Amino acid sequence: MADEPSETVTLLIENVPVKCNKQQLIENSNYFKVMFEGNFVERDKSTITLEEIDLKSMNLILSLLVDSSTAFMLGEDDLLHVLQTSCMLQFEDLRDNCVSILTEKLNPENAIKIWFVCESHGICPLYLKAKNLALIEFNVIKDTNALIDLDLTQVHLYLANVTLQCKSELDVFTTCMQWYYENGDGDVKSLIKLLSCVDFQSASEEEIKEMMIMPDVHNNQILRELFRLIFTFKGADAENYSSTIDFVKNLFNSNKRNKTFVDPVLFVKKYSTNTLNESSGESKEDNVEVHHDIYKRKRKYMRVGGIEDTTATLFIYDMLRKKYIKCIDVPEEKYVGYEGFHIVGYKEQIFLFGGEVTLGSGHWNLNFWVYDTIRDRWERKTRLPSGRRHFQSCICGPYLYIIGGTGTFRIIQDNMFWYNYIDNIWSTQLVLPCPASQLRCCNYNDKLLLINVNNRCGYLCTNMQGVYITLDFQDDTNLVLSYPPHFSLFTYNGRIYVKSNSSLIEFELSTTKLRVTNVWSPSNPTSTDLFAHWDVIESIVCNDSVFTLYKCTQTKSVQFEIMSMLEKDKMASQTLPAQVEDFNIDLSTKMFALQHHYKMVVNDVYINELPVISNSQMEVFLESI
Questions:
Q1: Domain 120-261+600-625: which CATH number of 1.10.8.420, 1.10.10.10, 3.10.620.30, 1.25.40.420
Q2: What is each CA distance from 606 to 158, 246, 302, 349, 611, in whole angstroms?
Q3: Which of 126, 237, 437, 558 has the largest CB neighbor count within 10 A?
Q4: What are the DSSP calls for 579-599, one per residue?
Q5: pLDDT in tens, 531-571
Q6: pTM for the full model?
């Protein structure tokens, strides 16, 4: 038939003819379907020239149309090229297949490359996941060649991002120099522009001195003078200096690196309307068991058999939009029936572990579940060495500490053990320096810090064998009238905080002392009475805010609040909604911090914008030196 497309068509790509099955192109590509079935001149042509299409990628696509299973054997670069070409020519199934495979292969070394390719084609959420991973794993990426093939603009988009999780600004500058050695070609302008990636406000004087002695800085007169000015400005007001170029001033009028770009996540349960086995005639009292907690207090728990249905979901509290965002549904087998388990966030992953089914039964949850937010699935990573419930936990670097709690035969545990997530190693049990019921724990500079207000001291764990430095409380001016019996413990900007129902106590670690530096009370006097009954207090720091979950196990009341650490002197808290969609925040609610990729869709903030340095500006600066 005259109107039917011919069987073959020749695509001229990079001046190389590629013979294709026309019907195969029509069936797999919307681009070619419209071209050959629409009213276009190419419809009747036997040879069609395709511009800006990669020849190798097109040949790979044609072979994948025959056998798509071979896509998983392609290297990352080939996959990305096939993905780009599939997007341009609208091979939707191939595009989706490439996205699926790249999601499985996503790791710190290829995250930046996948981020920029996928973002350029609007492939979401893969580009958000890759971007989030790249920003979290800078300390791994800096020691690879992942940045070598980037251009200057892309290097800036990565290294100047305020959410880049770096240990020091010296590491950022060193990474800039590594890129410059490979791509700079001796262009001083490029090197000056790279300075906009560094947060000189946060960099210490020692770090700046180390930057100054690097060969390409020390041996270049222009850069030596720039760093002299930078060093002069450190700790001074840049506005007071008028004889230097604006670029140097802007380095100190910049945004600061955000060390903890995380959001609070709530684990919230929703129970069915009929939570008791009415057909058996059980009363509410019949469906309750009484057990003693770590403080020897009587606590009532619903029998597992009396609960028909529960649904658990993780909600992120979006601080910018001031609303809860549904994040992840938790499968029932991960939590139903378990009492005293923990759920925590580690980088882009979520850990769920511990707990006991039917208190006192000896049926322990030994599974260590990990939810991978990149691949959107749960996996059992390992098994706990022993059963434990109602413990404390803390992540310090790659180590997860499990502290105290109740073990087999309902024995209170005055010990701890740790798990190295990277090496998949569990420690033996390590003796605690005092009874676990008296301790609270937190991460202090990637070391485990324990606080005992009863003994007016703290303990800093110095190695993985459970060796501690005892830190005595020091309150020379008697700022603290009395220490609270119930409190949460956290760190912020190098200081340690004890947050109770009626005060916020700030400590500074000094050698072997925990020196009290300040104490604040709520600005609203009634707050003390309002929070007086809270016996469980949990806090997490997200950016410059501290989120606190107050619980009263006796009245079963719960309150969720936020307080800005930038205005901690006011100690003014804002109560957040206790209902999340159809879920209510209650005693079973758990809270943790997580850096989730959903946040990456927000407009980026940079230390400095990439500067434009004109020849005239360079001449002015050269004259000044």
A1: 1.25.40.420
A2: 9, 18, 50, 25, 12
A3: 126
A4: EETTEE--TT-EEEEE--GGG
A5: 458 889 999 999 889 999 999 988 888 999 999 998 888 77
A6: 0.86
